[in-house]
């Protein structure tokens, strides 16, 4: 059984991330990101997991719209894989 993709669960969010990343090489990886659900590390955490729980590293990439961070991407230690997504503006869920 294949895992759901982020684009299947949150298509608008996926498109927004690609747009905000622009020419960053990470943009080419977003459409194939797996979806592991919502993080359950704490009651208040609402991050969307695109890797198994516990995969995130301290490396992150803020995505800005008009100079304000609207989405935070957690990356693996190499900076080449998005491990989870923090959506700071719920409007992007669509």
UniProtKB/TrEMBL annotation:
This is Uncharacterized protein.
């Amino acid at each position: 059984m294949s895992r759901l993709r982020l684009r299947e669960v949150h298509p608008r969010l996926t498109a927004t991330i690609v747009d905000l990343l622009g020419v960053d090489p990470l943009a080419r990886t977003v459409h194939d990101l797996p979806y592991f659900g919502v993080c359950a590390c704490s009651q208040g955490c609402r991050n969307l997991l695109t890797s198994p729980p516990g995969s995130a590293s301290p490396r992150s990439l803020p995505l800005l719209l008009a100079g304000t961070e609207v989405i935070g991407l957690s990356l693996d230690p190499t900076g080449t894989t998005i491990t989870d997504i923090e959506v700071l503006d719920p409007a992007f869920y669509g």
